[in-house]
From TrEMBL:
Predominant place of localization: membrane
Segments forming domain ABC transmembrane type-1: 15-294
KW NADP (keyword) present: no
Membrane topology: Multi-pass membrane protein
SUPFAM superfamilies: ABC transporter transmembrane region, P-loop containing nucleoside triphosphate hydrolases
Gene3D superfamilies attached to this UniProt entry: ABC transporter type 1, transmembrane domain, P-loop containing nucleotide triphosphate hydrolases
PANTHER family cross-referenced by the UniProt entry: ATP-BINDING CASSETTE SUB-FAMILY B MEMBER 10, MITOCHONDRIAL, ATP-DEPENDENT PERMEASE MDL1, MITOCHONDRIAL
Name this polypeptide is given: ABC transporter ATP-binding protein
Length: 583
């Protein structure tokens, strides 16, 4: 992203701010000329009331113009920052998971919040005022040259050296700014890491370990910001020395020229006053250049976020899915699907199976066999490297993401709940849900008894990540949320993992009732779940190695039978036995 793209649509207020700032500078430059007349008139023994009145009006007009310019700048900067953050957050919510997997969430948050704030400073301190400062500088030099070119020569010599020093400093500001912004991102990412896993940190007694890590990150940010502050601080003395030196030179040389009669006292005072106004545009130019250097690093980091690939529906998709979907036959099919998070190391190797429109299908197999990856492709978090995933007989890659995910529901094993009330979480992503449907789903999942014990019923806050509820309760809430969306196929990742026996039996009845209306694909590690499935798919080393009912596979498939004989078949610490069917 560059300034040209960033300012598109905001150039009118930027130009208005520049015009107001320039107007303030022009009004200031008129004041020395009137001051010269006032001093010369007063020296002749008369009170210059008209000139004093004009100066008063000019002071008021200048203050109003500059105040309005700053407000327009601030308003434009805040508006651009809001729109940029809206664009960034909308982009991040659609970034492909494969791209998010390679980054750190905390750093992305820093770019969305901290770097956009740097861009706001860029808008407020550079665009508009920088241009006005440049024009004001030229105009100020013109007035000084008209008043006394000899005195102007002394000023140019002193300010020229100061300006050269400022440019040398500014060249370093951009590099130090990007380093500081990167260090801030690392600090925020490490803090998000520690707080996101605070229970693990406490359980492992790793508070000191994380404190040291955060202290290291904070020190890195501190040193980077300190270096940048040092670069900016160097500019102040150079500018102050130039102004002080120029002021003294003007007084000394000017006094000599007044005593010789070359200029009047009023002209010397007018020149001195005009010279003080010369500092303002120089300061504005320096602030603009410095803000551009600091903001350019932020713009580069923001541009890297916007360059991350997003989920984009193919244009052909709309034309391909306008007809009525085919409801007969399998609801979902995998045909010779190959996939790897690293394309050189495939996780799925030619997976092929179909899911009927009704009933329960269980995926079983050791950890790392590819079951969760099958779910990720079924939900289109990733796309196959080779092969095809079909939904209702159509290739999923030609179906819009939103439509695909309205048909395929997911209940993850982690069962995340979002900050808000229980009602917010149950209705998350659902539309046009009636009270009767909510009560029916609550009864199906056994949540109605939980609701009765809550102080505010469905309007009870769930807490951060839903930690006010147990793992089993969060799991049932996630199932209820999925049922309210009424998908055609529901993916359940070990739905009984956090349930006691009574709740497990109740959930089995619920799943049996649900499977009469839609398809269920379940990652199962308990044989209580596998036995109730209409069909079992055995996954090992990225392949479907067997398919059938639990009873049939127990009798006919030696690999499945050996796997079943290794209790508790939970996947934890489980080593896959040799399979003669695999090469």
């Amino acid at each position: 992203m560059d300034l040209r793209r960033l300012t598109r649509g905001y150039r009118r207020p930027i130009v208005a701010a520049a015009a107001l700032s320039l107007l303030g500078t022009m009004l200031a430059l008129v004041q020395p000329l009137l001051a010269r007349e006032a001093v010369d008139t007063a020296a002749a023994g008369r009170i210059p009331w008209p000139v004093i009145g004009a100066l008063t009006a000019l002071f008021a007009a200048q203050a109003a113009a500059l105040a309005l310019a700053r407000w327009v700048q601030a308003h434009t900067g805040e508006t651009m920052t809001r729109d940029l953050r809206r664009h960034l957050t909308g982009h991040l919510l659609r970034v492909r998971l494969s791209a998010l997997d390679t980054g750190r969430i905390g750093d992305l948050i820093a770019r969305t919040c901290g770097d956009t704030a740097a861009v706001k400073t860029l808008i407020a301190q550079s665009l508009g005022t920088g241009l006005a400062g440049a024009i004001g500088l030229v105009a100020s030099i013109g007035v000084l040259a008209w008043l006394d070119p000899w005195l102007l020569g002394a000023v140019v010599v002193l300010f020229g050296g100061s300006f050269a020093a400022l440019l040398a400093v500014v060249r370093r500001v951009r590099a130090e700014s990007r380093t500081a912004q990167t260090a801030e991102g690392v600090l925020l990412a490490d803090l998000e890491r520690a707080l996101g896993g605070i229970r693990l940190v406490r359980a492992c007694r790793a508070e000191e370990v994380e404190a040291v890590r955060l202290d290291t990150s904070a020190r890195g940010a501190y040193l980077a910001n300190l270096r940048m502050a040092g670069m900016v601080a160097l500019s102040g003395p150079a500018n102050d020395l130039a102004v002080s030196g120029a002021f003294l030179a003007v007084l000394l040389v000017g006094a000599t020229r007044v005593s010789s009669g070359a200029i009047t006292l009023g002209e010397l005072i007018a020149f001195t006053l005009a010279m003080t106004y010369l500092a303002a545009p120089i300061y504005e130019i320096f602030q603009a250049v410095s803000a551009v250097q600091q903001g350019s690093g932020a713009l580069q980091r923001i541009g890297e976020v916007l360059a991350m690939p997003v989920e984009t529906d193919r244009p052909v998709a709309v034309a391909r899915v306008t007809g009525t979907p085919r409801r007969s036959g399998p609801v979902m099919e995998f045909r010779d699907v190959w996939f790897g998070y690293d394309p050189t190391r495939p996780v799925l190797r030619g997976v092929g199976f179909s899911i009927p429109a009704r009933g329960q299908t269980a995926l079983v197999g050791p950890s790392g066999a590819g079951k969760s990856t099958i779910f990720a492709l079924a939900e289109r978090f990733y796309e196959p490297d080779h092969g095809t995933v079909l939904l209702h007989g159509r290739e999923s890659r030609f179906i819009p993401y939103s439509r695909h995910r309205s048909v395929v529901g997911l209940v993850d094993q982690d069962n995340p709940l979002l900050a808000g009330t229980l009602r917010d979480n149950l209705l998350y992503g659902a539309t046009s849900v009636t009270g009767g449907e909510i009560r029916r789903v609550l009864a199906m999942t056994g949540l109605h008894r939980l609701i009765e014990t809550l102080p505010n019923g469905l309007d009870t806050p769930v807490g951060d990540h839903g930690r006010r509820f147990s793992g089993g309760q969060r799991q049932r809430i996630a199932i209820a949320r999925c049922l309210l969306a009424e998908p055609d196929v529901i993916l359940l990742d070990e739905p009984t993992a956090h349930l006691d026996p009574d709740s497990e039996n109740a959930l089995a009845e619920t799943l049996h009732e649900v499977s009469a209306r839609c398809a269920l694909l379940i990652i199962a590690h308990r044989f209580s779940t596998i036995r109730t499935a209409d069909r079992v798919l055995v996954v090992d080393e990225g392949r479907i190695t067997a398919a059938g009912t639990h009873d049939a596979l127990s009798q006919e498939d030696g690999y499945y039978r050996r796997m079943a004989d290794q209790p508790p078949f939970s996947g934890t610490g489980y080593t896959s036995p040799p399979n003669p069917r695999l090469p």
